[in-house]
Amino acid sequence: MKNESESRKRELKSRYENKNSCFDEDVVNKVNEFIRGCESNEIKFLFIHLTDCDEHGHNYGYGTKQYLKQIQSLDKQIGIIMRTIKEKGWIEDSLVIMTTDHGGVNKIKDGTTIGVQGGNSEDKINVFLSVCGPGILAASKIEGDLSNLVCALIALSALGIEVLKYFDIKLPQISLA
Predict the structure, then answer these.
(1) Could you tell me the pLDDT band of residue 112, with boundaries at 50, 70 and 90?
(2) Highest taxon of the source (predicted)?
């Protein structure tokens, strides 16, 4: 068992060092095990952080073939989690929020395209945000500027937790597309 664990660690380290991030697959498997094994239907909050797309953006550049291929892989992984939630019977009561931690741009360094984050440009601060669940109409569109704080506000509101007055962000307007 220990040799198997050490072998897996070496494989993951090798894949990571060769810019072939592979951690999401393990996370998705563990999330699905947790959901399937959960005896309670009273789960109020489950946070899942998938990082491989971010790693590919930084390692290969945003919009590159490798990055877009990783987005396809992420889409399949999210589909697996959503099917497991549905199989468990949680889908009708689940609010799912998907977002990125930042935007990004590319730059060439030593002849290699790499992804860059940080700074104040629109491309670096705009984030992807998708929300589905009870009360969210298909073809809805979130209007206005978005930041990652919106995700926290949506989650707090959905959980019925009072938002403190000094929390200086408001729920965005949502309209039908």
Answers:
(1) low
(2) Eukaryota
